[in-house]
Amino acid sequence: MASSAAILALMVKVAAYSGDADDSTESRVILMTPLAAAIAEASSSLEEQAALLAQSYRESGWARYVLENRCEDGPVGAQCDAGKSRGPFQVKAWCKAAWDAESSLQEQYVGGARCALRLYRAGKARCRGEPAGGFSMQLSTFGRGSEFCSRLWAVARSRLASRYALILGK
Fold this sequence. Notes:
Layout lengths: L3 H10 L11 H18 L3 H15 L3 H4 L12 H4 L12 H4 L5 H22 L4 H6 L15 H18 L1
Helix pairs in contact: 1-2, 2-7, 3-7, 3-9
């Protein structure tokens, strides 16, 4: 498994969300440190770390407004599913730990990561170990049939996770 420092280093190398393009490297490090720590804490393998990175990046772009729980400040059409999702993993209200206003942002991130992993593991199991199935499970409408395990967007997310795993594994 990778350390939170290695996870953070990868995150900082990825291009910033367009609305945060003027952020300095130092401010991005400060913004993303709690998320990197949450990914390291919640995961139990390099694969899971990479899956959480891919999930959070594709769902939020690690945009400042999302990571600071200010989704209403995002552009139209990118406001966390009109307020129905929360945090970098974009989990719904069933994930109480990610939505607990009494918890710190760090605790909310860890809770969201654990909920995202619960879905990822269930989807992989449903699809005989296929990582794309893990990502497909993130949808609230699970679908039926063989297409569930091979949705194009989920396959693309799985490929991104594989690239992240290779980088983290070095």
